[in-house]
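Q: Sequence in, structure out?
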Amino acid sequence: MPQNLIEPIIQFGTTRADRLAPLSAQVIGQVIELPAAIRPGRTVAKDQILLRIDAREYEAALAQAEGQLARDRAALAQLDVEESNLTQLISTAVNVLDNTQWDFNKTKALFDQQMASDREFKTALIDLERARLTVQEYEHRKALIPAQREQQAAVVRASEATVDLARLNVEHCTIKAPFDGVIEELSVALGQRVQIGESLFTLLDSRWIEVVIEVPAGLSDRVRVGAPCRLTVETMHGSAWDGLVKRISPAANEMLRTLKVYVEVDNDRYERKLLPGFFVKARIDGPTLENVLTVPRNIIQNNRVFVYNDGHAHVREVRVEHDLLDRSVVIGLEPGDIVITSHLDSLYDNAPVSIIGDLSASAVPNERHEVESSLANIP
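A: Exactly. Output:
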């Protein structure tokens, strides 16, 4: 009977850890702590301390930077106090100016009536000018405050950045595991003086394994994200790992005409782990072919197969629609047809054959044709 079949895509790929972190020194200094348990192959937990670098020089720099930041912030706060004081001084000076203006107006009126001396008039004029200058001076000083505040705020930000950098240097003196994983490589020793950028560890997370598979571009339309994939290793008989297609490269390799497909495997599901660096065979589930008939690929010769009927082998023309591993999806057969699967080179159209046993056994020709022909019932 016709059936629904999944069209598999068979390719090969290489496994790698989903997360791999080369850890290097971010500061210069001497390694003063390296636990004995930190060795290649050892499992570590996230945030576990892997080593310490002498931090005394960086701690002193941090204390100095924090002191300077405190002084700069105090200077910024002092500008607010000064602005408030100037506001009060301006208010007082304006009141004084108003009173001085009133006194001057009175003295001038008396002077115009020759009831005040020239000296009294000049003194009143000087007092008025002095009061005006005082108000102008305070207002000018207050007008400068916003620019001074902005400038001092920039100084504070620079000091904060210096503190952040100094604090970061102190933190960099303690190397911690960024995630749960296994130490793959150790490149440093206790007492060693390390430089910025010098390699310390390589840490990998082998729980999730990623497999990079190169799929021919012509098959790209048959691969979908989320498709199941079974992985096997030739030298590890009896073991298999199931994963899912997580992502597909949006562009093909121009030289190889292939597309990268990324399969992810949860290693925690298996007692026998799939390790990074393995060369694996991948069987990705492709599209589902609905209501199809299949026959073994090796029985199709020049788009023909032999069908058993009433003791004879008959040639049947077929058209191959898809090849699925060792079978082919064909058009030209009917449900219930019995195809002959062996000794095909000895058969011809209408050759007499007989069945030995049931349909799963062999059939042999009559006495005129001494060949055996296995039969397969089309499902």
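Helices lie at 56-112, 118-172.
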